[in-house]
Amino acid sequence: MPVSANLGFPRIGARRELKAAVEAYWNGTMPEADLAAEGARLRARHWQLQRDAGITLIPSNDFSFYDQVLDTTALLGAVPRRFGPLGDRVTTAQYFAMARGTQQAPAMEMTKWFDTNYHYIVPEFTNGQHFRLGSVKPVEEFLEARDLGIQTRPVLLGPVTWLSLGKAKDPGLDPLAFLSAILPIYVEILSRLAAAGADWVQIDEPILVTDLSPEQSRALRTAYAELASAGPQIMLASYFGALDDNLDLALSLPVAGLHLDLVRAPWQLADLLARGSDKVLSLGLIDGRNVWRTELAPALELARGAVDAVGGNRIQIAPSCSLLHVPVDLDAETGLDTELKSWLAFAVQKLAETATITATLNGTDTAAELGANAAALAARRASPRIHDPKVKARASAVSNADLARKSAYPARQRAQAARLNLPAFPTTSIGSFPQTTGIRRARADHRKGLISDTEYDAFLKRETDACIRKQEEIGLDLLVHGEFERNDMVEYFGEHLSGYAFTKLGWVQSYGSRCVKPPLIFGDVSRPQPMTVGWSGYAQAQTARPMKAMLTGPVTILQWSFVRDDQPRSETCRQIALAIRDEVADLEAAGLPAIQIDEPALREGLPLRRRDWEAYLGWAVDCFRLSSAPVRDDTQIHTHMCYAEFNDIMPAIAAMDADVISVETSRSDMELLEAFGDFSYPNEIGPGVWDIHSPRIPETDDMVQLLRKASSVIPAERLWVNPDCGLKTRGWPETEASLKNLVAAAQLLREGGQTPLPIEPKGLALAGCGCASH
Asked: Which of 604, 657, 652, 650 lies closest to 627 in space, CA to CA?
C-alpha cells in the first residue's frame, strides 16, 4: 500500500518561538540549556503534529537553530580557522559565530538556497583542509523522537550538493576534491543511525535538478557507491525542478528510493516510468513552495498511474520539497475572509492533503474531502475578485517605447551630476534604518487602535526627522527617510496594491532568526493611490541635502510574495511593474531627485537550468525598465542587489540601465566586483563595504581596503560608498559607529593617495540575497 511521507517541516514554530529563543540566547537572556530545551519542545510538537495528520514517514534532523547547510558544515567539522579550533564537537558559540561573525572574525558568506528566498551559510574550503565528525545531531534527534514513540526518517544534506554549494577560498581549488575526505564522515553517521534503529534516511541532493558538470556526475556516482551500503536504506531526494537529463544518472545510483518534484515538473514521472526502475518512488504532489490548495484530482491521476505501473508498495506520497518554505497553520489565521481562506493550504493543511491522497489510493472513502477540494477550486476560478479587465488591458498594451529612458547613460550622468552636486565617492545607505522596539510597539499599538492616526503620524514624523538629522551629522551625501512607516519591504507595498491579501501569522524563515510574512497575490495587481510619495516628499522638505526615495522592484515584490498560480508569473510581474511605474512618476513630480528600485531577487528568480534563462531574464529586465523608465534624465535611478553571482548575467544587469547599482561585497572581500570589471559595466556602482548581517562594526581601515580593491576594477569616478544592505535589523549605536567609519573611509579616498589593490581571483557562490532586512 502507498504510504504518506514528509520531507521537512517549518522549524520556527507557529508563533516564531524559535526566533524568540535564539535571539534571547544571542542577547544573553537565555542560557544555552534553555535554548536546547526550547528546540526539543518545538521538535516534539512538530513530530506529534505530523503523526496526528496521518503522515507515516516523518522527518527528523530537519530542525535547525540557524540553517541546515550550516548544520552540515558543523557535522563535517568544516569550521574555518578564524572561529577557533575544533574540539570534541562544534560548540554553540562557534556555530552562531560562523553564521553571524564576531568583532574579531567576519561571518561566513550567506546566499540563497537555489531559487528560494531561504538563505544558507556558504561552506568554505581551503588547501589542506581537514574534516572530522563535529556533530552527532542527526543521531541525537532520531533518538529523541524514538524516545517519544515516533520512528522518523532522518534527513541529511547530500555530500555532492554540500560541496557544490561551497566556496573555494584558495585559487584553483575545486571543492569536489574533498569528496573522499567527507565520505567517511557520512558513512559514520549512517552507521550510527542504523545502529540507533533507523531503517530509512532521506539524503537531499537538489543539485540533481541543475546543469551538472561531468565532475559532479562522477562525484554522485562515487558518493552513492560508498553510501548505499553504509546504513539505512536511502531515499534520494531531488526537488525544485526536473531531473531531465540527470534522470538516467539518478536511476543508476544504488539507492533504494528516489523523490521527484511533480509540482514543478509533473512530466518527469512518465519519463521515469517509461525507463523502468525497481526503486521506491516518492511522488512530490503537494506544492511545498506556495500556499494554494492542491488540485487533488490531477494529483491523484498521477499517483494512480504510478501505482498501476510499479505497485502500491513502492509508492510514497509527499510534498514536492520541505515545507520549510510555507507558513505553519492556516487555522491560526482569523483575519482572512472565508472565501480566500478556502483557496489556501499552509504546512499543516498540506500534510492533510498528502494524507488524503494516500488514503484515497488505499481505498478509504474520501469523497467528502475530494468534493470540498473540487468545489473550492471551482469557486476560485470563477471568483470576480481575481480578474480586473482594465489591469489586463493596460498590461497587454505595453510596448518597447515604454521600456526606455529618454537618453543614454552618459547624458543622464551629466544631468544628474549637475542636479545632485555630490562629491567624489558619494556616500549613501541602502534604505531602511533601525526599527527599534519603540517603533515596532507604536506600529502594533496603531494597528490595535490604541493610538490614533494623528498620533501615529506625529510619531513617524519625529522618527523621520531624527533619522535625517543623524544622517546629516554623520555626513552622508544622499539621504534616505528611514522607512519607519514600513513593516517589510514587500508587505508594505502589497498593503497598498489591489489583488493582495495578508496574513497575521504567515511567517516563513528567511535566514537565521529572520522571518518574513510574504503577502498573497490572489488577483490582478494595480495601484489605487500613491504608496510612498507622502513620506518621501515630507523627508525631502526637511533637508537641503538630496533625498533618495525607496521602492521595492517588481521582480522582488513578485519573488517575495506567494504568487497566484493561475497565470504566468511574467504577467503578474508586468502588472506590478506598471504599479511601481506610477509611483516612480509621482515621486519625481514630488521633487525627489533620486529613486532606488530594489531588485535583490532578480538573480534569485533565475531558473536552475540555463536553457530557461533567456526567457526569464527577458521579462524580468523588461519589468524593471518598465517601472523605472518614465523619469527625466536628471532623476537618478538606483537599484540594489546582493549575495549573487553576477558573471553569467552581466548583460542582463547592464540592460536594466539603472544609473547606480549597489551590490554586496563585504563578505566576499570585493570579489563580486570582478564580474563588473570583466564586463566593463558602464554605469555607477556602490560596492557594500559594511556587512550589516553581522553585529561586527567595521573599522575605517577595513572599508578603505575594500574600496581600494574596488577601485582596481571600477573607475573611481563611478564608485559610491554604502553598506551592503538595509539597516532595519541593526541597532542605532552600531549603525552610527559604522556609518561614521564609512564616511571617514570615503573622505580618505577623496583626499587621494590611495593605491588600488588587486582583487585575487576566487570562486563565486550560487545566487542569493540577504535583503530581507531592507
From this structure: 657
